[in-house]
Write a structure and sequence with these properties.
Layout lengths: L8 E9 L8 E3 L1 E4 L12 E3 L30 E6 L4 E6 L14 E4 L3 H14 L9 E3 L20 E5 H11 L12 E4 L12 E5 L2 E10 L17 H9 L3 E10 L1 E4 L3 E6 L1
Parallel strand pairs: 9-10
Antiparallel strand pairs: 1-2, 1-10, 1-15, 3-14, 4-8, 5-6, 6-7, 9-13, 11-12, 11-15, 12-13
Protein name: MOSC domain-containing protein
Pfam families: MOSC, MOSC_N
GO molecular function: catalytic activity; molybdenum ion binding; pyridoxal phosphate binding
């Protein structure tokens, strides 16, 4: 690890969690983290492929290809989700309302995910959105205490990882490629500001400190075709993997970390990297 890694510092620009894997994020002003746990409610639910390997209740270690995600199903970006963790109610709205649509129009779906009826309603809506045949309806996925992140599974600990993106790196990529890159394409939990572009590549093996919170960074994040999808139009409009390889020589953007000490994170908080 480079010697200057301990001097890396920045601030939390924004925080996000993704209640349903593949659907849109919820922005947070603050979050209370626990050691060994992911963001509360992050990737708590998923929609598994009917013809995939997911078995309800089996607590499997499965990769993203077993689920309906933007990598294969860009139409998922056509809806904006609003989740209430207190009631377990999920609402879906058009991500880009049709011209002439009245602002504040009702949700296209309101589903109580604590009930079988609400889960089936979500499954049915997504099946219609993706134009899936009757024998390919998604399987609603939830595993008590586990999450459904995008890591290749080597153990349950990875299922509790948090993802971090350096906004300066996203901007630098966009400048090199001559395009505007929305950082939400990378679906991270923590957006950092104030670091040099690509400074995060030195972070694996270090610990990020933010108040009482400690985040042990353990690897860079290799990207997939989900990043090609425009989150407003649900169209694949950027060859992101090609851009990453052409301008950076690799497909990485961001890092993964484990929460090793809990506490409160909030926008504007300072973050410092310390060597292990």
């Amino acid at each position: 690890m480079p010697q200057n890694s301990s001097a890396l510092s920045g601030t939390i620009d924004s925080l996000y969690y993704y209640p349903v894997k593949g659907l849109s994020p919820q922005r947070l002003d603050e979050v209370q983290l626990e050691a060994g746990r992911a963001f509360p409610h992050d990737r708590r639910y998923a929609l598994a492929r009917r013809d995939g390997r997911y078995v309800p209740g089996a607590r499997q270690l499965l990769g993203k290809r077993e689920f309906h995600v933007l990598m294969k199903d860009e139409r998922l970006a056509a809806v904006r989700s609003v989740y209430d963790p207190d009631t377990d109610v999920l609402q879906l709205f058009p991500a880009a309302p049709a011209p002439g649509t009245v602002a504040g129009a009702p949700a296209v779906l309101t589903a109580d995910l604590s009930t079988a009826a609400g889960r089936q309603a979500l499954v049915g809506y997504v099946a219609e959105l993706l134009e899936l045949p009757a024998d390919r309806l998604p399987v609603f996925a939830e595993e008590d205490g586990l999450r459904f992140p995008d890591l290749l599974r080597t153990g349950e600990r990875e299922m509790q990882a948090v993802s971090i993106i350096n906004l300066a790196s996203v901007r630098e990529l966009g400048e090199r490629a001559g395009v505007t890159v929305d950082p939400l394409r990378f679906r991270a939990n923590i957006h950092l500001e104030g670091l040099e572009p690509f400074a995060e590549r030195a972070l694996p093996g270090s610990v990020l400190e933010c108040g009482d919170v400690r985040l042990e960074v353990f690897q860079e994040t290799a990207r997939c075709a989900a990043t090609e999808v425009n989150l407003g139009t649900a169209k694949r409009d950027l060859p992101m993997l090609n851009l990453l390889y052409a301008h950076l020589g690799h497909s990485n953007m961001g890092v993964y970390a484990y929460v090793t000490a809990g506490g409160r994170l909030a926008t504007g908080h300072a973050v410092h990297a310390r060597g292990v």
